[in-house]
Structures are given as C-alpha cells and as structure tokens.
Design a protein that fits this description.
This protein has 150 residues and is an all-alpha fold. It is built from seven helices and no strands.
C-alpha cells in the first residue's frame, strides 16, 4: 500500500509544490513571503516533500525521518535569515498539510480496496511527519534567535 501511495504522491510532487507556493503567497498570515521569489519560498520544501514520499514508500524509515528533521531545521534557519515570524513558519507547513490531506483523500477515493484502518494509519503517519517538520523548524528558529549563532 505504501508503495502505491508513494508513487501517487511522487506523480503529483510538482503540482503540490506549485499549489503550495501559490497558497503561501496568497496567505495573509505569511507576509514575509511577499519579499521572496517562488524559488526562495520553495526553499527546502521540495526536498522535504521528496523525503515525505520516500518515507511513505519505506514504511517510516528512521533514517529518512532523521533527514526530514535535519532539513526542517535548515528551513527554520533559512526562515530566520529571511526575517520570518514563527507563526509564518507554522502557517507555511500548515498549508502544506492541507494540500497533502487533499492528496490522501484523492488517493483513498481511487483505492477503495485499502480499507479504513490503513487509511487512518497513513494519515497519522503523514501528520507525524508534518508535526516533526514544524517542531524542528521552529526549534531551530528559536535556537538561532536566542544564541545569535546560525
């Protein structure tokens, strides 16, 4: 199942990223993004999304989860340097969460044979990856803010 979901996500990666960049630029709560071009907004998110996809395919591989946390920390540092506010970092990731939830529902609608327990488990796994991303991004942001070292 995870391989099918990972393939489904991979086939839509560019679409997801483009929708996310547009959503970030349109979000009234992420005004710092208005100073950035789409590539700067994308920052580490293309890599994070690739790690999400590979983690889904690998059924939660711990090495990939570690890479997600490190990339999320790098993202927090980058956003600190771009003068983002902490809430803007959280909102960016929340916007990605919404798009990925829509993607999950689209996948499950096409694969009704999977069953509710597996759908729920995949949704929980995705939420955990996004929660880890939020945590690591914001922790790094505050670490740099308090130490001045980045």
């Amino acid at each position: 199942m995870s391989e099918r979901l990972g393939k489904f996500m991979a086939e839509r990666k560019t679409l997801i990223l483009n929708q996310w960049i547009k959503a970030v630029h349109q979000a009234p709560g992420v005004t710092s993004a208005n100073q950035l071009d789409p590539e700067e907004v994308k920052d580490h998110f293309d890599l994070l999304l690739e790690y999400f996809i590979e983690t889904v395919r690998a059924n939660g591989d711990e090495e990939l989860k570690l890479q997600i946390r490190q990339t999320a920390s790098n993202h927090g540092l980058c956003r600190w340097n771009e003068r983002y506010r902490p809430g803007e970092i959280l909102l960016e990731i929340s916007l990605l969460r919404g798009l990925l939830i829509e993607l999950l529902f689209a996948f499950f609608e096409r694969h009704l044979d999977i069953g509710t327990p597996i759908c729920v488990e995949e949704a929980k796994n995705l939420h955990q990856l996004l929660d880890d991303t939020m945590q690591c991004s914001v922790e790094e942001y505050f670490r740099v803010q308090h130490t001045g070292v980045g």
